[in-house]
Specification:
Layout: E1 2-7, H1 13-25, E2 29-34, H2 41-53, E3 58-64, H3 69-75, E4 81-86, H4 94-101, E5 110-111, H5 117-129, H6 133-161
Parallel strand pairs: 1-2, 1-3, 3-4, 4-5
Amino acid sequence: MKVAVIMGSASDKGQLTGCIDILKEYGVDVAVRALSAHRAHGALAEFVEECNNDGTDVIITAAGMAAALPGVVASMTILPVIGVPVKGSTLDGMDALFSIVQMPPGIPVATVAINGGKNAAWLALEIMAIKYPELKAKLLAYRKEMEASCLKVNDDIKAEFN
């Protein structure tokens, strides 16, 4: 099980730390890079080609502002690409969200919420669970834990107010 995580710049690192932690917690091999689609396109192309040939299952990308990175990566692979729009200083991440979600037909990028790095990890795990039964079992167990926690809170609220 392998995921590549590519950030457009080091400033995106904070949005991906939780993502990387979740993937590693589930036993996923994670290759992390900081490669700008605009400033390091040659190295980016080399890394995506490496991903195309080394057993990588999913690529997660994070970028702000023009957020070309997810689309550029998607244009170089048929691996699932998940885009994480990162909140910038001017348009609060809406510019990145629109850039990532508005891909041309045939070059899709799955898109999570602005600063949604953790959900990118969960989505990658769900995609990989199709291929890896042990991952599917872990995710189903985690969902049961979430349900139990939610029902416990419900019981506490009912006891407090009823």
